Amino acid sequence: MTSFRTFFAATTALCAGSAALAADLEVTHWWTSGGEAAAVAEFAREFEAQTDHKWIDGAIAGGGGTARPVMVSRIIGGDPMGAFQFNHGRQAEELIESGLLRDMTHVAEAEGWKDIVNPPSLLEACTVDGKIYCAPVNIHSWQWLWLSNAAFETAGVAVPTNWDEFVAAGPALREAGITPMALGGQPWQSSGAFNVLMATLAGPDVLQSIYGDGDAEMAAGDTMARVFKAASDMREMVQGSNVQDWNQATNLVITDQAGGQIMGDWAQGEFAVAGEVAGQDYTCLPGLGVIEVISTGGDAFYFPETGDAETEAAQDALAATLLKPNTQVAFNLKKGSLPVRGDVDLEAANDCMKKGLEILASGAIMPDVNMLNTEDTNNQLNDLFVQFFQDTSISAEDAQARFVDIVASKD
Amino acid sequence: MAATRPIRLFRNLTAKIAAIPMILTALVVFVGGTAWTVTYSFTSSKLLPRTKFVGLDQYERLWATPRWLVSIENLLIYGVCMMVLSLVLGFLLAALLDQKIRYENTFRTILLYPFALSFIVTGLVWQWLLNPDFGIQSVIHRLGWESFDFNPLYNADIVIFGVLIAGLWQGSGLVMCLMLAGLRGIDQEIWKASRVDGIPAWKTYIFIIIPMMRPVFITTLVIIASGIVRLYDLIVAQTGGGPGIASDVPAKYVYDYMFQGQNLGQGFAASTMMLLAVLVVVIPWAYLEFGGKKRV
């Protein structure tokens, strides 16, 4: 009996001893598609290689809409994870205000994030009252049109170089038995695609004044009427793509069942996993070929307050690791996104990423919608556009009137 | 006898002490939680609850939101159809089973089995069955009837009926069981008497048996009604509220705004409206069930 007790005491002591050296850090995120999972595995590998801590993967399937409520309820329910991924912007605003997230300014200063993070707006989106609360890990832009070269070959038309040519090619694709455009049923895809149409056909300034300043007059004006007209063209083109998830829609383009898709640059990860070559199997048009501009949204990691010194050490280590040059290159190549630091070498980048890097270097950037709108406004936009794109009985004028209401009441 | 009679409050003291946790739970969790929710529905709470009162703003926005109106309409259509059809189907099945048929146990088990499945499983099964490329439509196409068109889940106008089919398949078995229990509770003498008088069986059912089964019908109605109001998981599994927002229901609206939209105030306002709807159903029932008896 006594010997048993000594044995247990010894093993307990052993466990406690090893825990002091290295903490298990649970990291939650919603990166579950092929390309995303491959990318996040790079983080885990780098984190475990460079520090003594252990990465516990807490992936939540179903996209941000499903994952965010789970994460938020764990944090406000008093069972915080070690670190979690959000799109930076206003999603974590209230969590920061109520002191649930850790101030990471000390790590940012030690690592000199202010000097390396490019564009600086990424770090600004992490900053509240002069304190830095998150570690930006990548730049994602929404303004891309992905086209299947083989689909246009089958239809006997040249691969479009801009949005208007794409719309014109729609009927030819339809005749060849190809869905002209793929769009998944998830609400955020519908509003995202609309925001891209707005940012490119009307211009980034229009988007900035509507979402940034809540300009309802602009939202009701002729410029926006043209965008809604383009959206109803798009609605004709997406008829027949009965898929839900964004990667299933991308897969329609990869397998040449659909002509194209408006989707952020994360779609590139899917093309890469499928072994497709940019320029040869598929074409990408930044800014829909209309205007060369990309938004600088992206993903960031936040670190909840845990009150546990070991976990805090691991959080600091993770934050520092995420922005190291090696980590940035390995992660972003897999994810298809752009690195947050301008000083890393992305030689292995493919054509599409190089286009993105050039635009980023030229400074033709705009803020991401997530930085301008709260989730509440985004949710209202999701409702409007998912209904608009799925239900042909709503006219462009009615949709615009509802759009104006949302803009007028946004905060 | 009267002198030694204990005080009413202390009669069955152990039972009453044992019930205290339950009473506390009911008061704190149900009543307290409800009051809290209603109070915060008048605030501008976003991700976290806060006491910044904005009057009826959340309700004004709620009733101006097309998605909420669509979800109310869907609930009404689903509710009325579900209520009528499941009662009719359940009663017919029970009446058929009550004809002293062979293998009654087997039939009863088969009919009740769908109820043992969760709404999530039911929803997924019917999502596949109603999928135009894999389900019923494609099977009939392959049998040679090419023009057959049965694709409710991808048509915004009739998608709620696609959900109704799944709901009926799942729920009718339970209604049948309740009805069967009610039928078995009817004295056989009544059947004998009506046979002696030469009344046809269908007339006996409608004019004698059904009125006698009133309590069973009321219980069944309440069970079906509460199932209708909290309809959520079936929608999520079968259609995800789609296409677009065409098959949305109030419970899904509440969830989406409270958690995905990070707008607690809006979600609370919507759930308060749902509570009102439930009260509209429950209060007349409680009055009929309990109020009526006291007068007798």
Q: Spell the H/E element sequence of chain B.
A: HHHHHHHHHHHHH
Number of helices of chain B: 13
How many structural domains in the coordinates of chain B? 2
User: Which class do the helix and strand fractions of chain A yield?
Assistant: alpha/beta
Overall number of strands of chain B:
0
CATH class of the largest domain in chain B: Mainly Alpha
Radius of gyration of chain B from the CA trace?
Answer: 24 Å
CATH topology of the largest domain in chain B: MetI-like fold
Major pleated sheet of chain A? 5 strands, mixed
Class by SSE composition of chain B? mainly alpha
Based on the model shown, name its key terms.
heterodimer; A: 411 residues; alpha/beta; D-Maltodextrin-Binding Protein, domain 2; 21 helices; B: 296 residues; mainly alpha; MetI-like fold; flat; Bact_solute-bd_prot1 (chain A); transport (chain A); SBP (chain A); Probable sugar-binding periplasmic protein (chain A); signal (chain A)
Please describe what this structure looks like.
- Chain B: It is found in: Cell membrane.
- The complex is a heterodimer of chains A (411) and B (296).
- By secondary structure, chain A is of the alpha/beta class.
- Chain A has 2 domains: 24-141 and 296-360, D-Maltodextrin-Binding Protein, domain 2 (3-Layer(aba) Sandwich); 144-295 and 367-409, D-Maltodextrin-Binding Protein, domain 2, CATH 3.40.190.
- Helix content of chain A is 54%, strand content 12%.
- In chain A, α2 packs antiparallel against α17 (325-335) and α8 (149-155) crosses α9 (163-175).
- The model of chain A is unreliable at 6-20 (pLDDT under 50).
- By secondary structure, chain B is mostly helical.
- Chain B has 2 domains: 1-40, no CATH class; 57-290, MetI-like fold (Orthogonal Bundle).
- Chain B has 13 helices and no strands.
- Chain B is flat, with a radius of gyration of 24 Å.
- The mean pLDDT of chain B is 88.
- Chains A and B meet through α3, α4 and α20 of A and α12 of B.
